[in-house]
């Protein structure tokens, strides 16, 4: 098979020219208010996407054709790499992942400018210009410092192969989802900038891009969870989240995007928080780009390697310009961003949204602080410092628990204002549920204050949300004279935004329960020979059998561990310790038995020829609920994404403003 | 015509409330960060082996991260307990640990050990591959 690698660079040059042409047409179209110029820009955007697609195809074909004359192909693949993972080599390295990023950006741009209609159509020129400018920057990166099509002087016979850790099904979907999320935020960002610059600050910029925001946010959410699942099943340390800078980089835009998704609702309903909303979408986008850069620049190992690194030198000015220019535009339009209303009462749904927003942004800033503190410390003191998980746990857990409470108060409280008595009456069942859960757990000997609070608050919020489903469907049941399930279905279908949101919240509650379960975590380590037994928690692990096999890629050492509990057989788990020939590196394959009660997690950390193994066993209670919660969240996102445009307009209708009280006393 | 005046005077307490609210949020945020930074294990010095030797024993309640390359021929183990020498090319130190070693652990591997130094030996509670996020193949 011949490789199309030769097409790569010319395609990128063509894409760069077309992005610049598009930029020119969009700016002219915006300045002269001429739709024909904007339409020409649109066509240039489609072509730019086509050429970036061609460049991506060139790299993918080079990977599949084993064209080791390309440095990228040599560095990230090998002849023995199996087909599906060849595709993941596309985002296995910096150059390839930036190319993939650019592909997503240009394709999303093409779709967004093609589908914008109604009031949003007038924002296309400005949004297109913004997006084309960003695309031009990324294509420039691909042509100069991050060129994926660099040829080697001598073509090696085989490549170095893909890092074995990346050869996992999760890595086929986790990076594309994260990138879809990161890049997806560029669409609402660009429409916001367009609205600001063009002074068209009605709600068209965020209502018309709501689906993009939801889509990007959903992809990012699922991507983050899959990253955790990948870490859990591949890395073998028994956990799923380590507050690694790379993880934080994906979490930061998620936090601000979640805040944004909620606060635009206030702007829709009450015409408030306009400055806040444009600032949040700018912040989200800048953090998304920052995340891409953080994971792909080498800044993490040291600030020095970063500033010397070829891509870092380009990225930092780009980030700076975007941030400063966006803020300048916001300040410039501050007059047009005045709130039309004010908060009526602290006891209102608006104020829970506001509090939630403050908490999410506070979480983002504290995590950002912890992530970049090593860079700051090294810059100012020359002393390298690292920030560990205890910092992040300490700042994030209290904030997260407060957000859980707000998710419970939200459904209980009404828009505008509510009497204290009514709120207390509504809150009674959830509060009782929380108190009962806390009491029972404390009686069974749970002493971790954080975990007790977490379970109690989750019970409070779950009952509050379920109560809302019960109220909604009991109304529908009476009205339509149907059973509970059809009533529930119609309730959700008729108000997808509201109930989709509640489903996502229920999923979050389950995730929090799964995380809080780590309070009961136990771990044992031992060196075992075939025939030996060890105990972990209530389980007895018997090392039944050792086998060794070889494939062209790796040597596989497998230990069969018979698991019993109270004398009765549970299952047999077979953790492996493999040796990958291409990388000359061993890698552990974890074996997990997952149930809603607990996960039994086995990993071999070293093994010898006779099968004597260092076996590490974890019991991770309730971890199953994290993944279950993520599935619930994803289904809620599905409900949100299928909201029809008509329903969207209705949901967006502002809450009627009270008549000003003019009666004299 | 008196309306603007009355509405601006009604705005003043609202603005004051907003400023106070914002101050409370900012102060509690700084408080939270300051408290969290001071907790054990939150921050630790990141040193090379020769910097560690120069700095001496780890003070109580702290831990250090030390970075260096695994010295070939220095790896010994007994059961779960490993000992190896780590060096930045200038001054080597001896690291002991009974925690699992990273998959990339081998002679010359660039690793980061977290733990405490008593002036002679570094007892690691964690040994990580340097920058596991950088998926670049090692040469």
Describe the structure.
The complex is a heterodimer of chains A (665) and B (139). Chain A is of the alpha+beta class and 665 residues long. In chain A, 63% of the residues lie in helices and 12% in strands. In chain A, strands 3, 4, 5, 6, 7 and 8 form a six-stranded antiparallel sheet that branches. Chain A is globular, with a radius of gyration of 27 Å. By secondary structure, chain B is of the alpha+beta class. In chain B, 31% of the residues lie in helices and 33% in strands. Chain B has a five-stranded mixed barrel with strand order 2-4-5-7-6. In chain B, strand 1, helix 2 and strand 2 form a beta-alpha-beta unit. Chain B starts with a helix and ends in a 10-residue tail after the last strand. The N terminus and C terminus of chain B are likely disordered. The interface between A and B is large, with 54 and 35 residues. Strand 1 of chain A pairs antiparallel with strand 1 of chain B.
**Envelope shape of chain B:** elongated
Average predicted confidence as pLDDT of chain B: 82
Sequence of strands across the biggest β-sheet of chain B: 2-4-5-7-6
Structure summary, number of beta strands of chain B: 7
What composes the largest sheet of chain B?
Answer: 5 strands, mixed, barrel
Q: Which series of helices and strands of chain B comes N to C?
A: HEHEEEEEE
Rounded average pLDDT of chain A: 89
Instruction: Identify the overall geometry of chain A.
Output: globular
| Poorly predicted segments of chain A | 302-308, 657-665
Overall structural class of chain B, as computed from helix and strand content, comes to alpha+beta
Strand content of chain B: 25-35%
Largest interface: A-B, 54 and 35 residues
Oligomer: heterodimer
As a percent range, the share of strand residues of chain A is 5-15%
